[in-house]
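2024-03-11 09:14:02 INFO receiving multi-entity request
2024-03-11 09:14:02 INFO entity count = two
2024-03-11 09:14:03 INFO echoing inputs for audit
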Amino acid sequence: MTTVEIERILIEEIALILNADAGALSVDAPLHSLGVDSMSFVELLVFIEKRFKLKLMDSGLKKEDFRTVRALAARVSQSL
Amino acid sequence: MKDVYYLSGIDWVMYALDLSARRRTGIGTYSQVILDLAGVSPARDMEEAAAQFIRRLPVLHGRICRALNLAPYWNIPSRVLSVDSISSSSVSSREKALAVLEKAVNTPFARKDQHLRFYSVIHPQGSYFSLVFDHLILDARGAETLLSMFNEFSAGGKIIFDAPVQGHQLSAWKRKFSAGRRVNRFFRALGQPAEAGGRAGRERMPGGAECVFRHHTFDVQQSRRIAELADEKAGYLMLMPYTLAAVISALHDSRLGKCSRGGEYLIPVNLDTRSADKCRKDVFFNHVSFLFFRVRKEDSGDMENILATVKDQMYGQVKNGFPRDLEEASLLMRIVPARLLHYVLGTVMRENEAAFAFSFNAAGGFASAEFIRVPVRGVFHTPRVPVPPGMGVFFTRYGERLSVVFSYLRGMISEAGADAVMERIRARLLGGSDAG
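2024-03-11 09:21:47 INFO inference complete, emitting structure
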């Protein structure tokens, strides 16, 4: 799976969680600026665990890995 | 019936909690959102706008009825006959203004079909504008959104008010019963009766019971520092778990918060993850999710331990679909008469008595920099706490600024004790270990 495909999957999931329009969400925007908060972020991490079999919550990743959807997708792609 | 708003399960639970609060304290589940203004809005503009605004919203004058299919719904009158919309006053200090607002949220509405009231209180440094509301009709972010709509309306903006509509959701019973079983298992796993000796739990509070508030709004620098510390200690976007951990630690050190016989604090947390756009679409009724955290007393002196526990439980509950199960299962409870549900909830709450209530309101409900042409300095909420536990801590974000309110039943804690709790919460949030 390519990083671009992962980005698309993550954007669609964030749109679902936030009840927002996926087309309005940028992969380069910080997650908090999209409206993601503690609870919705945990929902996203749970989705990543179920979809990609990766548990990121306690994996010691840096804050930079979570800053944008692009960064998060790159990190997921590396771990697959 | 078509085009009516059938209550959700969470709305029905709120109704049962409202009955419970009225029996124990004489007052329902009211709350208040307060705007701290750097000036005074023109009184006449405000009063006229408030009366017109409320008159256009018959939904605010509804009451709960049961349909033939047994699902409860919100009966909306076709028109509003009388409007008692705003109370204005002027006092000599900011402290006296806050005392007026404290009294406002502790005063029952005059009529059964009244569910909100505006207050404007002028003091020498500016004014407060508040909305006291009934949780039957609005949740915290819904109330902020309604204030935002009122602000636009008073500025001449055209607001289209569609009456809320929601289906009865009387299908997929098997799924609801399965969710109910999982929720029941979850509560049984939680359940260890609280230690004896608490006074707010069981008995009726004689002659009503007022809630008292302590409030603090952090300045922008302090709010940024708290966000940085949350990033550093709890992780990216983990501000809510960080604030919860700070409060657990502060209340533990203050020797407050009832503990179970098993030596754990139980904390129910309500969260609203809706985007600002979604709040606009669903202004009325309750749209919160609930999580329940258990923290061992012996771990509560250490922020790192608390944070690890809170994050782990948050992840586990979301992964197991607990918030969704609770939403589904609560739909079943609508069949139960409210008075019986009040009794059942009372039993569940006695078996799983909370140490304190907690909520964290994300920014976005009210986001405007001005209210009726006056700059807004801050936004915070002063909810009457559920009884039990009779005390709670509530956070609100407005722009970058973070506010915290400690709310408790008068008499549970001394004035000096409440001040010390607030000082400890502030110190913990800013990275200090103790405020003394």
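2024-03-11 09:21:48 INFO post-check: The CA atoms of residues 10 and 28 of chain A lie 12 Å apart.
2024-03-11 09:21:48 INFO post-check: Chain A touches chain B at residues 17-20, 31-32, 35-43, 45-46, 49-50, 57, 63, 66-67 (CB under 8 Å).
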